[in-house]
# Entry
Amino acid sequence: MTEKAKKLGNEFVEHKFLRQIGDSAYRLATPKDIEKGDYLVSHFGLTKREYFAGLAMQGFLSNSSFKETDVVCSDMAIQFSDALLEELSKTE
# Structure
């Protein structure tokens, strides 16, 4: 996998912008907070690579004629995810 595809795959699917409002209290940043740069960026959830692999695995498992083991299914899902990221990195 190229470095560009790896970088793309390690991006998070969703970014959350938080603003600190106390010693250990946070809230979602408003557009005004973001405009002023008064926020922290926190990453929650899956990377694009994990998300794409999960979608591929879901597709495999929804097919009742798919009879591969869990290890084979996981490996195939990762291969499909990496192939998609490779192609997407060519268009950016």
Notes: The longest strand covers residues 15-20. The chain has a mean pLDDT of 87. The chain has one domain: 3-91. Residues 3-91 form one domain.
